[in-house]
Design a protein that fits this description.
Layout (H helix, E strand, L loop, with lengths): L4 E8 L3 E7 L7 E7 L1 E4 L17 E7 L6 E8 L1 H6 L5 E2 L10 H15 L6 E12 L1 H4 L2 H11 L3 E6 L8 E13 L2 H8 L17 E7 L4 E7 L2 E2 L5 E3 L4 H15 L5 H10 L4 E4 L2 E4 L1 H29 L9 E5 L1 H13 L4 E4 L6 H25 L2
Parallel strand pairs: 1-8, 8-10, 11-17, 17-18
Antiparallel strand pairs: 1-2, 2-3, 4-6, 4-7, 5-6, 5-9, 9-10, 11-12, 12-13, 12-14, 15-16
């Protein structure tokens, strides 16, 4: 594979897009980028002076489809933090009813995030060839129509993202997807904590071929389950459950609205709780610290959530004939796992429960490892022919 091809992993999470771009100069082997998964129609904003926000919060873009020998304008959009701040009642957030593979906004968010990750101040106008690894929810992945529909939006396709904010120096990033590899959410996460990029086992995973591992990937709207048995996925143990941390976060937000008349979104609550921030609000002109109250609400609603989730996991595993007594290890990934790991350990007493390294980025890292693995296979195949 040409060194000019950018190798990228991407996870269009229900609340956040996570991107990993290969970078051998980084000790981890990749750079990480994150964009909030919200989008709205864009418009010409009135701006006085210079915008001092972080670039990730200035994603005002126009997207072009450059396929079929023509340039088609797909529209102007605010993406991420800018959409959150500047929408005019038309903010689009991911819901449990949305089908990721079919949604045009999945594509627009992904393209914007990739262009942002590829942007260079000294080289704002460029064309990049990309080998992309990305994911779909398990239930969508095993639907051939949805899988093909999503893949056809990317495979050998070319798009251009024009940045409209002056902070991006009139940037235009054109991207051609030379290769596109799609994996199931949860399965890609499993790759991230099982294998190094060179295909060797990570420390602590050397005995995976003689063990049974349960993978639990908790997102905001869905939870993806994988069972790795003797080093291979057990097809009966691959399934999704339609609940995630948005459920308890929405419950907390509703209670704060009812008891304190405080308007707050699940995105704000997730950030405060995940980062361990203080929760202070202005009530009748007084700054009130509600950090302890928020922690109490978290314990109540997240405990209820975990009890329900564990019940659903056990029920589904039993229905599918998976014996939970044989689990050697339970690996937890996904942004939601950070919030619930302690609750989960108390409730799920089957195997050693471990929070994986880089849990929020696990699917993006695993997707990048898939790109790496396929590149190595292509090189081996070429060597067999050209060196014979």
């Amino acid at each position: 594979m040409s060194p000019m091809i950018k190798k990228i992993g991407a996870d269009v999470g229900n609340d956040t897009l996570k991107i990993t771009v290969e970078n051998n100069k980084n000790s981890e082997g990749f750079d990480k980028y994150e964009v909030m998964n919200v989008i709205c129609p864009g418009y010409q904003r009135r701006i006085l002076g210079i915008e001092n926000s972080q670039l990730v919060n200035l994603l005002d873009v126009t997207i072009f489809d450059l396929n079929n020998n023509k340039e088609t304008n797909l529209g102007r959009y605010f993406v991420g933090g800018l959409a959150y701040k500047e929408s005019r009642g038309d903010l689009i957030e991911k819901t449990s009813e949305d089908i990721k593979a079919e949604s045009e906004y999945t594509l627009y968010l992904l393209l914007t995030g990739l262009a942002y990750a590829l942007y260079e101040e000294k080289n704002p106008v460029k064309h990049e060839n990309i080998s992309l690894g990305t994911v779909l929810p398990i239930e969508e992945y095993f639907n051939d129509d949805l899988l093909n529909k999503f893949k056809n939006k990317l495979w050998n396709k070319t798009y251009k993202v024009k940045f409209n904010s002056k902070a991006f120096n009139d940037a235009e990033i054109t991207m051609t997807f030379i290769n596109t590899y799609i994996e199931a959410e949860g399965a890609a996460a499993t790759y991230s904590y099982t294998f190094n990029f060179d295909g060797t086992y990570k420390k602590g995973m050397e005995n995976v071929e003689n063990e049974v591992h349960l993978g639990i990937d908790i997102g905001s709207i869905t939870t993806e389950i994988t069972v790795l048995e003797n080093g291979e996925f057990n097809s009966k143990g691959l399934f999704g459950i339609n609940i995630g941390t948005a459920y308890p976060l929405d419950k907390i937000a509703a209670e704060l609205k009812m008891t304190r008349n405080i308007d707050i979104t699940r995105h704000q609550l997730d950030y405060i709780l995940r980062k361990g921030k203080k929760f202070t609000v202005n009530i009748d002109g007084q700054i009130v610290d509600l950090t302890d109250e928020l922690q109490t609400l978290k314990e109540v609603h997240f405990n209820n959530f975990i009890k329900y989730l564990v019940n659903q996991i056990n029920k589904e595993l039993s229905t599918r004939g998976i014996n939970t007594k044989f689990f050697n290890r339970v690996n937890m990934t996904g942004g939601g796992s950070i919030l619930v790991i302690d609750n989960f350990k108390k409730e799920f007493k089957k195997g050693n429960v471990i929070l994986a390294e880089n849990p929020r980025y696990a699917n993006a890292i695993g997707s990048l490892s898939v790109v790496m693995a396929n590149e190595q296979q292509e090189d081996v195949a070429a060597d067999e022919v050209l060196n014979s």
